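JOB MANIFEST
job_type = single_chain_structure
chain_count = 1
residues = 171
[input]
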Amino acid sequence: MSRETLKGQQVLDWLKTEKQGYEALLALLDQEWECLKQRDISGLISLTRAKENRILELHELAQKIKPCLPSEKAAGKRTELGGTSGGVQGQESDPWEAPPARVQKSIRKIKMEIQARNERNRRYIEESLRVIEEFFFLLAPPAEKPPAYGPFENRRAMNSAGPSSFVSRSL
């Protein structure tokens, strides 16, 4: 095998590993969704760590792959010559498409799914927090009078009526 072929095979293997990593991240997001619905805090904490580790692994892998892939301009010129790109026209996998391009196309689809599921989880968390805030407001409405021992601004407002009796006393 030539050196180019070995390098191409290495890149293809890395891309397949990257695809598996994104599929695993997608599965973690589904698990996160289940934990959110069940209000499983310890499960969410462990999933947060697992997601962080998976994302770090994917980032390291991307750093290996990026220098080996053709630049965007070169890929665009090749796409113009070859017909369709990984965009809207060629949704199904082209049998004449190079294996790395097919894997990259499937990675893009998985990334879109990850984005959608992450957004779903984010909206659920925000809605849950909004409901919790409303419950807290019902249980303990905000104080009408600022506390005496609160932040500096509150103390200054309370002391602006005049000097305190301790300072104004003459001995």
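[summary]
Confidence is low (pLDDT under 50) at residues 73-91, 164-171.
The first helix runs from residue 3 to 38.
exit_status = 0
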